[in-house]
Amino acid sequence: MAGLQIKLDGGDQLGPKLKLRTKTFSDKQIRAVQRSATRVADVIETEGRANIAAGGNFSSDRWQQGFRAKISFLSRGDLNIRVTHAVSFWRVFEFGAKIFGRPLLWIPLPWNTTGRRAKEYGKPLFRVNRPGKSPLLLDDDGPQYFGKTSVTIPKKWHLRDTVKRVARTLNTIYKEEMKNGG
Can you give the pTM of this predicted structure? Predict the structure, then answer.
């Protein structure tokens, strides 16, 4: 039985299976299924990358090119499209998350452009506790980090919605491919 599944990384099925209820498929049907899957995967990547870029400060290649829709051929007519991202913590931006410190998260202040975590800063840091305010980590040049017990990252992307919307076009694309000779 031929079919197509669209899955988000982690195995969550997002699209309906395209099931053809025949036991044998012509070459035309197989080509139409494969070309349909390729077109759907391309649209998912294009629109998903646009969604990521629209989510804020995600314009680098790391975020754009890391989003992929990969096709796996289980057999000639049975395919999976697996939607993944190269950045392991991408789900934080898709679902939102609350991140907790142990006991504090040390967040760099805007003028700290080292790109390093506080424990890797390179210069000696000392802590200043301020009553009613966040503690600071300072070096000889002044404050570099402030401490928070937790931060909330809001949902910034809508990739699942994009994949679902594109998956709904699969039947139309398959019909086009069949009409165009598979």
Answer: 0.74
